[in-house]
Amino acid sequence: MRFALDDRPVDFVDGDSIAAAVVRSGQHPQHGGTLCLAGDCGNCSADVDGIPYTRTCLTPAQPGLRVRRHPAAGGPPLRLAPPANPVQSPGQPTIEVHRLRTDVAVIGAGRSGTAAATEARAAGRQGLVLDSATGHDVVGVYPGPLVIVRTPTHMLHVDAHEVVIATGAAEVHPVCDGNMLRGIVTAGAARMLGERGVDLGRVVAVDIAELGRFEGVDGAVRAVVFADGRTEECDTAVVSSVTRAPRDLLARMVADPAVRVVGSAAERFDLPPCPTEGVVCPCSKVTVADLDMVWNKGFTHLELVKRAALCGTGTCQGGACMPHLRSFVTDRSGEPAAPFTGRPASRQLTIAEAAADVHLDPWRRTALHHEHLALGAQMDRFGGWWRPWHYGDPIREYWAVREGVSLGDVSTLGKMIVTGPDVVEALERIYPTTIADIRPGRSRYVLLLNERGHLLDDGMVCREVTDDGSDRFVLTFTSGGASFAEAWIRDWIETWGLDVRVMDRTISLGAINVTGPLAGELLRRMGVDEPPKFLQHVHADVAGVACHVMRLSFTGEASFELHHPVVHSVELWRALMEAGRDLHISPHGLQALFGLRLEKGHVIVGMDTELDSTPRRLAMEWAVKMTKSDFVGRTALARTADLPDERRLFGFTMDGPAPTEGSPIFVGGEVVGHVASSFASPLLGRAVMLGWQKHTPWADEVVIDGRIATVAHPPFYDPEGARARS
Amino acid sequence: MHAPERLHGLRAVSTPAALDGARITGEALVLRIASDELIAFGASGIAVDDPYAIVEAETTFQMWELTPAEFAEHVVRHVEWALPAARPVLAQGLVAGVAVKLWLDHDRVLLIASSGLVHEVADRLGVPA
Questions:
Q1: Are the beta carbons of A234 and A221 closer than 8 angstroms?
Q2: Are A302 and A326 in contact (CB under 8 A)?
Q3: I want to staple A588 with a disulfide (CB 3.0 to 4.6 A). Which of A66, A290, A592, B42 is the partner?
Q4: How confident is the model over A126-137, as a mean pLDDT?
Q5: Do B115 and A565 touch (CB under 8 A)?
Q6: Global pTM?
Q7: Is residue A107 within 8 Å of residue A260, measured between CB atoms?
Q8: CB distance B54–A421 less than 8 Å?
Q9: CA A299 remoteness from chain centre
């Protein structure tokens, strides 16, 4: 039976691991280094059937396997998958995750592990033993505790009340001059190879405490030089040690009282002598000289030495080098050095294994998704939703809004109903705008601030009165900010102990924005004889669908948002499109909407704002009533009101095409900020922008994209707002 | 297994005590999704002793009805949390990364998702859309 090593055949006998067969053929799975053949080091790792860093000592030899040694220097070449289409579903994961729950998960089937499992079962508890030899390769232990296991066919997640780590102890590798030669094995490896009938040639055994160095020819060991100066020639050097290294990497991954270590894995063995020469970390090829270099640069802690020298960061995660690294740090510092923190994965995983059953955040579709597709929409992801970016011609969509009537799917907006005896008090405390003076049937634009006065979100507050005369408010939020805003508001209400009812209606209601100078005409055709005036809202049937009609304007034209039960979205959309056919109605996507609102200077939270944007920085102090006694963020705004501030969002215009959003803004050759939003306005015939200046004095003239741009205070279009109110 | 069925019902928000005494009209599947919120699928009316209660129509949810075997095949391996043992019982949480509700009955399981996520549930669990 044969497999291929670097495209050349290697014979093996039944029961051989790949590594054993390679040694039997007189070769080394890598290019040198001590072999333990117990899975503790990375010195036998190779590419097996396209999977790099496979421990060949734990991989049974099989006919037809293709084994390829990693390069002597550097890692194996990366094989990149073709770029994925970001707007297509990634499809089903290719590796399944199975889940098990048990009382006790025992890792390791040796004497201690078997005893722990027996003890658990005797106590009437369910015990599960996991061991590499039976195809359960434990790669990580997480709080919970949760044990992640790789099997030949799937990943296994084990939730256990208790985890017992009984992984035993490893042999210590030699660190000395010549320790990366071929032909050096541990005593355990030599015993196993002997049992399998592998001819090791002339063998010299040496205890690490008596070892001086190895000498070799053409990369293979030829002699052992003892510490006392004796030299013995050999084909194979067998290294033993009275001390051992606990296999406690899994235990070092998690601090959980439900995880305990037993047997040799829990023992405290003496450290080997401090290394003076040779390779300490064979995975990362870190020498004693490398450790000295980083130590002398001031990295005088084991965790720092590890990070600076990369010692212990390779394939075996310190399995081979940890005792020597601890010995080195203990020697230099004079203090006992504890092992470094362990982190999953303890074994090399493929990306597919690591990603098994890991799902991307889901992206919602509105009820109109297929209507958009039928109209030729290019869909894209925004704020957790699939939304139409455009329908083929965003400029035509823009003009439909400016000159006629257009529909926009705004179902994604956050929507919330709030009532209760304390509802006005709650909203007064939450919003920086006055709420109590909003009359029923009216609405108001509001900012949502955090305690630091930074903008979290924005939206509308609509007030209405129920049949029994109590207050009821409908709140709206941005599409991307709705979930957080809901949690934020609920949290404050609970914190204050106010008596308020909150119902989130975001996913329950669809919303269609009817916008453009002919929007009112379209609504009248649909049976709304008296469409609400600007910032008013009414409940009305539109095409037989009960709607909450809100008059506002994000586009700069007359706009009516029709909020309705989501089950009626399609019939309402189709009715509006049909009724507006002779008005040349067409839908508009986000691309046109972003330009339309930019002409009005309306800010998009998260696009134009930053994490620390205050109303002053956004030139939106008009939306804050500091005369109120309190609201979330008021204290911070009051405290900082008189302090100088170097950040401000400005409007800019310039001739020519719109610069790329994110473009740097220059003054005198220095970068002073960046463009947040840009749009080549068809109506104005020039580029309009919102952008940040973060250095004072603020300039009236800047350079963007190599061109002169001038500060202009928005709105760039219809500054009096006559069209929105018409 | 069939494609999901749209559920019609009423959603109510009120104080926990008032919801405990809610009077629901019609043959309804009542899911108490929070201490202060319930959804009654199939209900034609909900009366709550709370003048500030919010009661609204709810039409966004869709439901797959699964046999226990179908539930085990399509759903269970995607549930990272402990499923309750009691029956019937409501469970809510992420399944394959998607927020769903599960009505676990003795002889059937209702897998309920908002309509905006039905395509994600179908893609990830391999149930019909």
A1: yes
A2: yes
A3: A592
A4: 94
A5: no
A6: 0.78
A7: no
A8: no
A9: 30
